[in-house]
Design goal:
The complex is a heterodimer. Chain A is an alpha/beta fold. Chain A contains 15 helices and 13 strands. Classes of the chains: A alpha/beta, B mainly alpha.
Chain lengths: ~475, ~70
């Protein structure tokens, strides 16, 4: 394989690579070896993986190769190299949660999501970097590098999973998403990030952050690949109390269909709105694309959007403080500063505030139901500002400091609060060269329409074809 | 971010002892700040009348077609 072919292999889509593996045009071992070499060359620079699983990955690849050669092809994920966020439990494999509380935890079970991927024949390359317990930056596990601009943030909390895909260090990956952790990193690293409807994908074995807000998410370089991955991990799991018993339809069946005549609500009503000219410009151009594809677009005020910061704090922090009750009391010195601060707050939020927030959340859900009787999907930015400073919660804009924790709940957390499926796809770049994404949310359990719109946009643009300048030297 | 204190250090200290936590000076000061910020946001949330809304149940987002 020459260098150009090798480079194309790193960035192949799951659909392309899956077809080549099925045809035995390339073997899972060749692919896995190439990916492991790339990871070994660049992981120190990019901080993508906490654990690289060379031996286990090669063993899985050899098994896939044997099965494919012998006619036991399992489907498009067979032999595909993937990454898991390091809060996804893996039997016999360290699962650190990017925390010093229990950095060498080795689970004796697999998360359901990994069981499903393994059953599909995927090859696990490694466990990806994240914010501590999926909600707090932790200097002990420095943030992955944004491959488009090393001084800009790769966001979080699933930044390792997103950067793995953005840099050709995995063909697909799994993240988790409690307030946007599965979409914010897609937004600034130039990849696709999708969370399905609450209940669609089991959280069993994914270390919880907030029981009523946690979702599992996927990262890919193409919308069609996101459909393949999310379908592979969807379905009822009796061990997850919130898991839906609804059958999983062909989630990608509408991909390729046009969107002429579709009613699109343009998300409005945010507290911080139209504040970054780069984001405003990218989103305006994105709506031009959708309009040119035949969609009808109207502004829609998102119900209760201005309360999302309070709602998310009132619900997520007490739930997180419950999850970490013993960590906070027995080993607080091992938690990072941000985690400590947020868990302390979660410990003193009154139960009446938590329950009030849950009741308002029900009203919010009912209002969204009414909105989605009018619109097929709701579209808008995933963040009102471009990527911020690396290692910081802050973005500087026109002399102002924007704390990203005060804007995230309105833009991404809102879809965790109501449990709608939501995807972020590449839609353009800031003047600093960092990606800016477009977010599309849809009706509960209608991931198919969300993917239909996302795919139509993707095919009408070429943002998804760009490759980042980092890691240096290919 | 700074917020006008809505709770005193002594009040927060009392609550912390009730929930069986022990904080040093720095964490306690930090909590006074973050709790004040939270309570500011909560005031606006409290103004919403949740009417007859009950908290979502186990079927939230799931079988009830939500």
């Amino acid at each position: 394989m020459n260098a150009s072919d090798q480079y194309d292999l790193y960035f192949a889509t799951i659909a392309e690579l899956g077809s080549r593996l099925a045809r035995q045009d390339i073997s899972p071992v060749e692919v896995t070896e190439a990916m492991l070499e790339r990871i070994e060359r660049h992981n120190d620079e990019m901080r993508v993986y906490i654990s690289v699983l060379r031996n286990a990955a090669l063993e899985q690849a050899r098994q896939a190769e044997h099965e494919i050669r012998n006619g036991s092809y399992r489907g498009l994920l067979h032999g595909i190299p993937i990454a898991l966020k390091d809060n996804v439990a893996t039997e016999g494999i360290r699962t650190s949660c990017a925390s010093m509380v229990d950095p060498d935890w080795v689970p004796d079970f697999d998360a359901t999501v990994y069981t499903k991927l393994r059953d599909g024949g995927a090859v696990l390359l490694g466990k990806a970097n994240l914010f501590e317990y999926a909600f707090s930056m932790n200097t002990t596990f420095p943030q992955p590098i944004n491959p488009w601009h090393a001084e800009r943030s790769s966001a979080g909390s699933s930044s390792g999973s997103a950067v793995a895909v953005a840099t050709g260090m995995a063909h697909g990956s799994i993240g988790s998403d409690t307030g946007g952790s599965g979409r914010a990193p897609a937004n600034v690293n130039g990849v696709v990030g999708l969370k399905a409807t609450y209940g669609r994908v089991s959280r069993t074995g994914v270390v919880p952050l907030s029981y009523s807000l946690d979702h599992v998410s996927v990262f890919t370089r193409r919308v069609a690949d996101a459909a393949i991955l999310i379908e592979a991990i969807s379905g009822h799991d009796s061990r997850d109390e919130y898991s839906s018993t609804r059958p999983v339809p062909g989630i990608g069946t509408k991909i390729g269909q046009g969107i002429r005549g579709m009613h699109i609500g343009r998300a409005r009503g945010f507290t911080h709105e139209d504040i970054d000219p780069d984001v405003v410009s990218v989103i305006a151009q994105a709506f031009d694309v959708l309009r040119n594809l035949g969609a009808e677009i109207e502004d829609v005020q998102l119900p209760y959007v201005e309360h999302c910061v309070a709602l998310q704090s009132s619900i997520m922090l007490p739930e997180a403080a419950t999850v970490h009750y013993h960590n906070l009391r027995e080993t607080p010195e091992k938690l990072g500063q941000t985690a400590l601060m947020r868990l302390d707050l979660g410990s003193v939020i009154p139960a009446t505030a938590y329950i009030h927030a849950q009741r308002v959340r029900k009203l919010m859900r009912d209002e969204f139901q009414r909105v989605l009787e009018i619109y097929d999907v709701i579209v808008g930015p995933a963040n009102p500002v471009r990527a911020g400073e690396a290692g910081s919660w802050t973005t500087h804009l026109d002399g102002r400091d924007i704390d990203l924790r005060t804007v995230g709940p309105e833009y991404t957390g809102i879809y965790n609060l109501v449990g709608l499926p939501a995807i972020v796809i590449p839609a353009g770049f800031s003047s600093e060269g960092t990606p800016i994404g477009l977010q599309i949310a849809g009706q509960w359990f209608d991931e198919a329409t969300v993917l239909q719109v996302a795919h139509a946009f993707e095919q009408a643009t070429d943002w998804h074809r760009r490759r980042p300048p980092l890691p240096a030297h290919g | 971010m700074s917020f006008a204190p809505k709770v005193s250090r002594d009040e927060v200290d009392a609550i912390i002892r009730m929930v069986d936590l022990t904080l040093g000076e720095e964490r306690l000061d930090q909590l006074v700040t973050t709790l004040s910020g939270f309570l500011g946001n909560l005031e606006r949330l409290r103004a919403i009348d949740p009417k007859d809304s009950e908290p979502p149940t186990i079927t939230y987002g799931g079988e009830d077609g939500s």
